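Human:
Class, as today's exercise, you are to examine the entry below, and be ready to discuss the fold:
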Amino acid sequence: MGRAFPDGFLWGGATAANQLEGAWDVDGRGPSVDDHFTGGTKDTPRTITVDIKPDLLYPNHDGIDFYHHYAEDIALFAEMGFNVFRMSISWSRIYPNGDDAQPNELGLAFYDRVFDECKKHNIEPLVTLSHYEMPYALVQKYNGWESRELIELFERYCRTVFERYQDKVKYWLTFNEINCGTMDMGNLFETSMIRGFEGPGSEAHTTYQQRYQALHHQFVASARVVKYAHEHYPQFRMGNMDCFILSYPATCDPADQLANQAKMRTMNWYCSDVQVRGYYPSYAKRFWAEHDVNLQIADGDLDDLKAGTVDFYTFSYYMSNLEGTHPDLKVTGGNMISGGVNPYLQSTDWGWQIDPDGLRFALNTIYDRYQIPLMVVENGMGALDKVEPDGSIHDQYRIDYLKSHVRAMREAVADGVDLVGYTSWGPIDLVSAGTGEMRKRYGFIYVDKHDDGTGTYKRSRKDSFYAYQKIIKSNGAEGLD
């Protein structure tokens, strides 16, 4: 038996409401941004439409129908051994238009049922308040987070769910992968400045000024919500959530070292420096000046940032890339961002480079920087699964991915990192955020749902289900060979 993880370690899986709930127009829910995204592929970007068109397929409308299968799914999570389930609340299920006079009681009642089911199985909910699911009406009216008006609307939404679920939820995250708002593609999901846009997502463009102003509004909103939670619900623990895209210098050329340092700052540190430390980092002013960013900072904003720092840091980790200055650097794909090909790494079917050692490196680097508890709240492998005639799915590739990353986390804990939890992305198959596909499967649980919208929604256990079950049962001490 090897080293185990700390006592009380949180083991589970992570999902997002827009990618699994379905029931997009049921029980008073309003459309979210993702409900206006069609399906896509690895090579064809998802299309955004202003109106819902009956001749197009919008995969998020149905998801995997968690809305009607939540009890079955949570029972399967419990069978795997989960003691935490990262999920999100659909903002438009609570406030259909984002600025309604009163919340939607049927939406609130749904999450009551979900949280009660979690409690029944001794599973702790870890709830993301905004996970790529802004009410679409706020895009139409305010152009998403470009407008300061969203700060107050987000605060009101959060106060509503805090009051309602104060005895059912302890762990909260404000914005999912907030740093994706630094990028054009990330803006589609994260800050959603797409009013009136129609076409492939790759054609939607925003300026640096728009993106960083929108992020400022989110920083203020997050800080105010964290401060409010600390003052009114001292039992809550409030976290941030970053998409950590680790990059290495492509060569030992000092120019590549500096290029990578700059990339790490803008991609991985800018947002969390604000949310963890409570102020803009030293390198921000030069970055703003070089990209014509002139932030409009209202009186009291900087005080809010200082007063609303998070209690713990969470992040997604899927891959690493190379960053360099030389023209011969080959480029590969990834989670909304591309980077240089590392010849020492293998890749998934979607070109994401598999780097478990990078997870250990990331954990050490993050903890050295912030010295607060960490959680890996997304990590997984999207792959093509083959269903055998007897219904079994032998996904050894996913098992290998899982084991290698858990081993890396165990090494990071031995290195001294205060790692408190791990929620694998997509413990059950769901709609891919980036491509809108079902065939890009992450789950330990297979769902009979396909890219053309067909399927029975039947759930079944893959081989990886039992592999993760063994790891959890031994608290990471067994099942990693």
Remarks:
- The chain has a mean pLDDT of 96.
- Residues 445 and 461 are 5 Å apart (CA to CA).
- The chain is about 35% helix and 15% strand.
- The first strand starts at residue 10 and ends at 14.
